[in-house]
Amino acid sequence: MKDYLQQEVQLEGWVYNIRSSGSVQFILLRDGTGLVQAVASRQALSPESFALAKRLTQEASLRLRGRVREDARSPGGVELEVSDLELVGPSQDYPITLKEHGTAFLMEHRHLWLRSLRQTAILRVRATIVKAMRDYMDGQGFTLVDAPILTPAAVEGTTTLFPVEYFNETAYLSQSGQLYNEATCMALERVYCFGPAFRAEKSNTRRHLTELWMMEPEAAFFTYEDNLRLQEGLICSIVEQVLTHRSRELEALQRNSDALRKVMAPFPRITYDDALQLLAEGGLELPWGEDLGAPQEAFLSCRYEKPVFLTHFPVACKAFYMKPDPLRPEVTLSADLLAPEGYGEIIGGSERIDSLELLEERIRQHNLPMELYRWYLDLRRFGSVPHAGFGIGVERTVAWICGLEHIRESIPFPRMLEKMYP
RNA sequence: UGCCUGGUAGCUCAAUUGGCAGAGCGGCUGGCUGUUAACCAGCAUGUUCGAGGUUCGAGUCCUCGCCAGGCAGCCA
After folding, report:
1. Residues of A from 354 to 413 whose C-beta is within 7 A of strand B: which are they?
2. HSE-up of residue A90 (Cα within 13 Å, Cβ side)
3. Cβ of A277 < 7 Å from strand B?
4. What one-character DSSP code corresponds to residue A227?
5. Under a CB-based contact definition with an 8 Å cutoff, are residues A195 and A215 in contact?
6. Which tens digit of pLDDT belongs to each residue from A206-254?
7. How far apart are CA A294 and CA A345, in angstroms?
8. Is A77 helix (H, G, I), strand (E, B) or coil?
9. pLDDT, tens digit, 9 for 90 and up, residues A72-114
10. N or C end of chain A: which has fewer CB within 10 A?
11. A306 DSSP 8-state letter
12. Is the CB of residue A80 less than 8 Å from the CB of residue A9?
């Protein structure tokens, strides 16, 4: 707006709020770029137009024409002096006011809640995070390769999938593109997939969705160590891009950006064994071999100012395809990345098993149907190489970077346990 | 799925020991020539989540159910 001072312009948007002072109506207009104050005064308008201005309601859509001028009394320092206004679409009894609302009410009206300043800020940060992820991977020589959504079997088990009628068979919504990435990385060496994943878990927490978006890189000839360095670079790049391009949004979200500025490589690494030690000192003892619970993860996540890698989990805690450490076969060459400030896991990854015999053994141990993994085992039959990869959850990353209390705000239309409307 | 908390006007909430159903916001009507979640005056708004029970009397107590929020489990 500041570039258009003293010029005649036309604005299209929605009424965010109205304030009135007799012969002057102050219209706070919202459009795709932000808010601006428009001033409609009796003296500058026709009687019909001024009458229309007096009748405006929250979220009515408008087309305004007028001159841009500076005024210190306007929020933002500039305002539009309205010379003509046109009602595009009326809005009666808009349910969401500028006052307080409860979570349940807002979620029922998610389609309208998205118009709020806070939600639009989150959506913009989310878009920047997604772009930063893709730009970084592209810059590292990775090729975007889409993985299928409809799949014949579970990647990691069979209990958490959504079944879908597929002609005369049952298909399942993908919970991860990982196995398909392992195939495509043998073609293109460095690949990543980006898309939704579906999990039918009965999880009812602030960190779980049934429909989530993941970016999953996979690279041939990548080692465990290469994998961690790629993750550090990716996270630093995401944070940097958001700090650079979305400072206004972070401010609108009242996000403490100093905390984000501390995110610089290298990230601390602690092994599972060390983590158990730290947890014991913090009064959160866990027997060796047990996976971390939410309190354990939060404890470790709050202990550092940067994201922290949790490495070398016991084989029993992890997916069947994760490669055991040659020096300690009871643990895996895996790492989870925990975001700081209590946000917890945002990345899970590992080097993968490249031996045919070991992979067959693991599939049997996990009671998975060998027949469905025939193609996957082929990858170890024809030029198997060491390879590694990971998956980063978009919503958990958004929640952390935006400082959200609940993951439901990190995606436009969250899908949660038994909650699908709107 | 378990535990905890809650469900009262469109929204956010109040209602003392079981004793008249109430406020702010929003809506409507009017006022105001610089408002900043504007302000001022007035008006309207109820299946107190549902079913049953105790009681002279239930928003309040009891039982069951439904829904929501939080935590945990499950889960990358």
Report:
1. 391, 393, 406
2. 5
3. no
4. H
5. no
6. 999 999 999 999 999 999 999 999 999 999 999 999 999 999 999 999 9
7. 10
8. coil
9. 889 888 999 999 999 999 888 899 988 888 888 999 999 999 9
10. C
11. S
12. yes
